[in-house]
Specification:
Largest interface: A-B, 29 and 26 residues
Shape of chain B: extended
Order of helices and strands of chain A: HHHHHHHHHHHHHHEE
Structural class of chain A: mainly alpha
Oligomer: heterodimer
Number of helices of chain B: 36
Largest sheet of chain B: 2 strands, antiparallel
Strand order of the largest sheet of chain B: 1-2
Shape of chain A: globular
Strand content of chain A: under 5%
Distance between the termini of chain A: 44 Å
Number of helices of chain A: 14
Radius of gyration of chain B: 42 Å
Largest sheet of chain A: 2 strands, antiparallel
Strand order of the largest sheet of chain A: 1-2
Structural class of chain B: mainly alpha
């Protein structure tokens, strides 16, 4: 019984399930935001879920091994903190939304709240105590859990799995699906540029200085999908679910370095020419990869152009041509990641476009 | 938001903030104190406190022993003398005080004068410089005033020097006077101090070891950063580096921070971690060959030497019970973050090889030594690259002429199950092992063995054999027993190997190993033809030019007799071996499997169809020999350039554990554990796995005993990639190198099968003695030993190198009564030189620049004459020839007392040795029959009046005579 439950949870954590579930979770949280913040039981279960999950899972021998590692402890904390603050912001947003609907200003806009307070003691005194509390936490933590120092680095014997620093685990995960050039250089650059560009892309003046959801629905949901699914969850997955040889291991599975998983992937060109048409790969790369190139061109150019005149018309009008193009390109890159993931999981797609002649792969 | 209680003008409740701040401040203080304590309370400190108690106890005991040991009587006497002298002195107080004050006054004046003299001298030096400068620039005239100053200064120096000379004797006289008064007292005092010095020292130490306030102050938190007595004990080993992958650093060992008693015998019985090292004569102690300050601990033991806690040091438990105890006591767990865990004590000797990797013998590391011998004997280097064995020839017989030696049916059954023919063979078993014994493999094994022997026979060449004459098996048996064959070979079982009992690992096995140097000869009749055997014993190199089997210089008749005897011994059950029929379809299938790796399947199938049965066998045989690596040990036609099939063992001891495939076996992931299991059951890592024939493990089974497994594993674990700087290696002196080389040759040719050399070996001596006893020729085993090959102790000092060189090349008869025969070995010049140098080096005898041996011409003729009379066989003489041969002339005494031919002495012996030998034979060779004629060397104790009864003169005469016989 226990075994079956563990196997079931192991299965739920398989990347294709887990990514889908987390994305669905984000959407559901925002869809049922009133229940999630107003209903004590639902709110309680949401906030308690990571505690329950980690608490019960820690009873499992294999999960415990990974959980107790000093460098993994903060990740468990991060899961809880992210969930809590997401929920907390939502709770405030929901409260404000209700006020706005009633025609009142948001809570932060109340006159009483706009009253000035003293820097001392109202601000600095409290801040100082927070500093002390955090120091105490760090001191006690460092006494109880000594720093996980390892053996001298050995180029002949790299650790297995070799893991990036925790904040880069999301990028490392992308290496599974993309060429290193894309996963290691292009996509991180777009992420940085994208984050910097947000203030310029965002035409919506609402929500400045106060919590709200209704007034910024798509902005919040889009951002959270990127942040929680493609960043926080991938860090969690990289920490707890990626074991030796970067293989996927369920949370209760033994990290057996000898575990083998089939790793045979197929290029899009092979799908089209060999499997679909049965005529073999054309020798000239441009012809061979034409399908992938056309598909990508459609995705990056035709799709936003078409959307501009249909359901994204509102944005197109608000943003203007230039901002719309940059915005959609960044967005399309972001969605390319899960698209590629799903294609890999379902049909073992390796690359849309693979031109080894130029070391160019997408 | 809760309604604030009392805010005043502030948004927050200040009282409450203050309260919170107080709580947080206290928590903060506590956490800092906790941090300080956590940093302070290190486990090694408590060990040092515990040890302090133990040390104090030991020191108090020593103090008590010392006090009891001091002779009380003289001490009391001395005290009395002192007291008496003091009393006398007290009567002369006034005189004494006056003398002392006078001395003080004179001494002070002396000191002041000396001081003034030193001032005057330095002033004089300065003036001199001024004068020289002035004279250079202004000439003699211009420097007149400087000259005057210089002269005045010189006069001052003179004055003080004179005063000093005057005062010194005055002070000395006063001092002497004072000593005259107090001398008796002072002498008694210093004698008492000398007697009680050790007690004083121990007493001081006992006081130092008290836990007093100084101790607590010095070692209190914070204070301990100045000069604590509880401190890390570390050694920095600049000459033993630690490989940090990108660089190296001196090894730093802090083991003695907890192992505080390791270097002193006082703690031999203390509990760990305070126990003394069990071999302080070799290790740790300052006066041992491996002092800890120079070699540390982790260089041999492994582990993380610079760690200061039990877990961090990567201690490894010896066994399950220790592991459980450690888990309980220390929370021990396996550490994977250190590639060099401490060796369990059973494997510690592996550490010796880090520096002693090129030594042939390691008498103090018997396990490793035995392991390396096993590697040599079993021929591990045939399949595995092992650097130190790179110069060896292939360890097993040449198969190039196999068809002339035996028949294919015998070979098939041999390959299938070597031990069924010869239970003590070294040939391992390749078939019917754990991964090849299911029903499919039982059939396939037959196919494989049949193909291999077919290849071997079809590719070997006929060699010309001589026809064996008819021989007499009875005579042959006597020859085999007496000539010395049994020094390297056995026939059937033998009890002699049980005789040696020793705690050294492998000692018994090693002793019997001398007689396993060549194959066991029983059952030879089932294997080889008379013609082959006859040809072989007559000239072994004819069949195999690299064999170590020597030439015993057999006559055709002797060889014929021996052949007749040996081919008459058959192995029961092997009279008519057969090759069982195999399934041709299976053979084709296996061949196809191999062909498919080279050819596309259709072509492969076509090839199979085109081959006849024998071609298929040959094809498959070649591929299988290649797979199993038969050519690693045997010379096989077509495989002259084949490489080794096994993994390299040159630095296996450094192989990361993560690179070892433990298969599905549930075992501790450690190098040693892996290795022992591999040696015990080479194919067991295939258990439970689904593997194709190509992927399966192929190491054969040697059917090793647990003792052998442990020794082999220890030796292989010692083969690491560690590089020890030359400064820390044993110095490669010429003597050391000569001995190492000589030992190696002696091992290859099995000298110790017959001779006792460096107090090891002589396996055949017991066999011969037993035979003599059984035949009734001698009354006891000890007497029978005389008929064995000689003990070679001090051979290097005894014989002339030139003679030794010639003897190894072409043996001559020294002891005519021996039936056992020194064979002619296939030594080349290098071997001969090395052996000669080896014997000389063992006894530190001059080589290669020999002493000039005094020849007959240089002995005065009269001395030789007197010597001849003294040695002669008559009443009143020493009667040397009653035991010693003189040319062909047999001695009078029974054969058990016969001794070497003295006519050979001039060319053979070193006169210096002969001199020592006559004086004291027992010290040079314990147990020899040679009597000691001269128990005393005092003049007058001799035998021969014409030489003045002076033993030394008589011995000189004897040496002169013996060294002149034949000239």
């Amino acid at each position: 019984m226990m075994e079956a439950l563990k196997n079931f949870i192991n299965m739920l954590f398989q990347p294709y399930f887990a990514v889908t579930l987390v994305a669905a979770g984000v959407l559901l949280l925002y869809r049922f935001r009133y229940q999630a913040t107003k209903n004590k039981w639902i709110a309680g279960s949401i906030l308690a879920s990571p505690l329950v999950f980690f608490g019960l899972s820690a009873l499992d021998e294999n999960f415990w091994i990974q959980f107790k590692r000093p460098d993994n402890l903060p990740i468990s904390g991060m899961v809880f903190l992210v969930l809590f603050f997401t929920w907390f912001a939502l709770k405030k947003a929901v409260a404000n939304d209700e006020r706005i609907k009633d025609g009142r200003p948001p809570y932060e806009g109340e006159e009483e709240e706009e009253e000035k307070v003293f820097v001392w003691p109202d601000l600095v005194y409290a801040e100082f105590m927070c500093v002390l509390l955090v120091s105490i936490l760090l001191v006690v933590w460092s006494i109880l859990v000594p720093a996980p120092l390892e053996e001298p680095a050995n180029p002949q014997l790299t650790p297995n799995p070799s893991k990036a620093p925790w904040y880069f685990l999301g990028l490392q995960e992308m290496l599974v699906y993309f060429d290193p050039w894309l996963a290691g250089v292009v996509i991180p650059t777009f992420i940085l540029i994208g984050l910097m560009a947000i203030p310029y892309m965002d035409p919506n003046p609402k929500g400045n200085g106060y919590y709200t959801f209704e007034e910024r629905r798509s902005e919040i949901v889009l951002f959270q999908l990127g942040f929680i699914v493609l960043w926080v969850f991938l860090i969690f997955q990289g920490t707890f679910l990626r074991g030796p040889n970067w293989n996927f291991y369920g949370p209760y599975e033994v990290w057996d370095a000898h575990k083998l998983v089939p790793l045979a992937n197929i290029q899009l060109s092979e799908f089209v020419w060999a499997r679909g048409l049965g005529i073999g790969l054309p020798s000239f790369w441009l012809v061979r990869e034409s399908v992938g190139i056309i598909l990508l061109l459609l995705y990056f150019i035709a799709l936003p152009a078409w959307a501009a005149s249909r359901w994204m018309r509102k944005y197109f009008d608000q943003m203007g041509m230039m901002r719309y193009v940059i915005f959609t390109q960044l967005l399309l890159w972001m969605f390319l990641i899960p698209i590629k993931m799903y294609l890999r999981w379902t049909v073992n797609l390796k690359y849309f476009v693979a031109i080894p002649e130029f070391f160019f792969n997408i | 938001m809760a309604k604030p209680r009392r805010r005043g003008v502030y948004a927050r409740d200040v009282d409450r903030l203050n309260l919170w701040f107080a709580l947080i401040a206290i928590a903060s203080l506590l956490s800092v104190l906790w941090m300080v304590w956590d940093d302070y309370a290190r486990p090694w400190k408590s060990y040092q406190r515990q040890f302090r108690v133990i040390e104090a106890e030991v020191t108090r005991q020593q103090l008590a022993d010392e006090q009891a040991g001091v002779d009380q009587l003289p001490l009391a006497e001395l005290r009395q003398q002192r007291d008496a002298a003091e009393e006398t002195l007290s009567g002369q107080q006034a005189q004494l005080r006056e003398l002392e004050s006078e001395l003080a006054r004179v001494s002070t004046r002396l000191e002041l004068t000396d001081q003034n003299l030193r001032f005057a001298r330095s002033t004089y030096d300065a003036r001199r410089w001024e004068f020289e400068e002035a004279r250079k620039h202004e000439g003699e005239e211009g420097a007149a005033s400087e000259r005057a100053t210089l002269d005045a200064s010189f006069a001052e120096v003179q004055g003080y020097a004179a005063a000093l000379e005057e005062l010194t004797p005055e002070r000395d006289a006063l001092q002497a006077e004072l000593v005259g008064l107090t001398g008796t007292r002072d002498e008694a005092r210093s004698a008492i101090t000398a007697m009680t010095r050790e007690i004083e020292r121990l007493q001081t130490r006992v006081n130092d070891l008290r836990f007093n306030w100084v101790y607590y102050l010095r070692n209190a938190p914070f204070m301990d950063s100045f000069n604590p007595s509880v401190r890390i004990n570390q050694v920095v080993l600049n000459n033993i580096r630690f490989d940090l992958n990108f660089t190296d650093a001196p090894r730093v060992d802090r083991c003695q921070s907890c192992h505080l008693g390791a270097a002193s015998t006082d703690y031999a019985t203390s509990e760990q971690p305070f126990t003394a090292h069990p071999r302080l004569d070799l290790f740790v102690a300052d006066n041992s060959v491996h002092p800890a300050a120079q070699f540390g601990c982790s260089s041999c033991h492994g582990g993380k030497g610079h760690a200061t806690s039990f877990l961090n040091a990567v201690h490894t438990p010896d066994n399950e019970s220790e592991r459980e105890r450690w888990e309980h006591d220390y929370g021990w767990e396996p550490t994977h973050l250190w590639e060099w865990p401490m060796r369990p004590s059973g494997e510690t000797q592996a550490g010796c090889l880090s520096c002693h990797g090129s030594d042939n013998w390691l008498p103090d590391a018997p396990k490793v030594e035995y392991g390396l011998e096993l590697v040599e004997k079993l021929g591990c280097y045939g399949c595995h690259q092992i650097d130190r064995f790179d110069d060896r020839r292939k360890p097993a017989p040449n198969l190039s002429y196999l068809r002339s030696k035996t028949d294919i049916e015998w070979a098939y059954n041999w390959v299938m199950e070597p031990k069924s023919y010869r239970p003590d063979t070294r040939m391992p078993r390749f078939f019917n092992l754990s991964n090849t014994s299911d029903s499919y493999w039982t059939e396939r094994n037959k196919v494989e063995a049949e193909s291999i022997v077919t290849y071997l026979f079809d590719n070997s060449v006929e060699i010309e054999l001589e026809n064996a004459p008819n021989g007499n098996a009875g005579r042959g048996e006597a020859l085999v027993e007496s000539l010395g064959c049994l020094g390297c070979h056995m026939i059937g079982e033998d009890s002699a190997q049980e005789d040696t009992e020793s705690e050294r690992p492998g000692e018994a096995a090693r002793f019997s190993g001398y007689r396993h140097h060549g194959p066991n000869l029983s059952g030879l009749g089932s294997k080889v033809s008379a013609d082959w055997l006859y040809t072989w014993v007559r000239d072994p190199t004819h069949y195999w030019d690299e064999t170590v089997m020597p030439d015993l210089r057999l006559t055709p008749q002797e060889a014929g007799d021996i052949t007749a005897y040996l081919v008459g011994i058959e192995r029961p059950g092997w009279e008519d071996p057969q090759i069982p029929p195999v399934d041709p379809a299976l053979r084709d299938a296996v061949a196809l499997e191999y062909l498919r790796t080279q050819l596309p399947s259709e072509e492969a199938a076509a090839r199979i169809a085109s081959m006849d049965e024998n071609e298929t066998r040959n094809y498959l045989g070649e591929r299988l020999i290649n797979r199993y690596g038969c050519s690693g040990c045997h010379l096989i036609p077509g495989f002259e350039d084949a490489g080794r099939v096994g993994t390299s063992l040159s630095d296996w001891g450094s192989k990361p554990v993560t690179r070892l495939d433990f298969g599905l076996l549930d075992m501790e992931h450690e190098r040693g554990v892996f290795l022992e299991q591999k040696l015990r059951a080479p194919r067991s890592y295939d258990d439970g796995r689904e593997r194709s024939a190509e992927e399966m493990l192929r190491m054969p089974s040697f059917d090793l005993t647990e003792e052998e497994i442990e020794a082999l594993a220890t030796a292989i674990l010692g083969l690491t990639s560690e590089e020890t700087p030359a400064e820390s290696l044993p110095a490669p002196t010429p003597r050391r190198l000569a001995i190492e080389k000589g030992r190696h040759i002696a091992d290859i040719y099995n000298c110790r099968g017959c001779h006792i050399l460096e107090d090891r070996g002589g396996a055949i001596r017991d066999v011969i003695a037993e035979a003599k006893l059984a035949s009734g020729e001698v009354a006891s085993l000890a007497a029978g030993l005389v008929f064995g090959p000689p003990n070679l102790r001090s051979e290097g000092a005894r014989v002339q190198p030139t003679w030794l060189y010639r003897f190894f090349d072409e043996p001559s008869i020294v002891r005519p009564w021996l039936q056992v025969r020194m064979p002619t070995f296939q030594f080349d010049d290098e071997d001969l030189n090395a052996l000669t140098a080896y014997f000389a080096a063992l006894d530190e005898a001059p080589y290669p620049f020999e002493e000039t041996f005094t020849t007959a011409h240089e002995y005065p003729a009269s001395l030789v004459r007197e010597g001849a009379v003294l040695a002669a066989d008559q009443r009143g003489s020493l009667q040397c020839f009653s035991c010693h041969f003189q040319g062909d002339q047999e001695p009078r005494v029974p054969p058990t007392q016969w001794a070497p031919d003295l006519a050979l002495a001039a060319a053979r012996l070193r006169p210096q040795w002969l001199d020592g030998w006559i004086k004291d034979p027992q010290s040079l060779q314990p147990g020899t029959n040679m009597p000691q004629f001269y128990a005393s060397l005092d003049p007058g104790d001799g035998y021969w009046a014409p030489l003045g009864n002076d033993p030394q003169v008589e011995i000189d005469a004897l040496v002169a005579y013996i060294m002149s016989i034949g000239n």
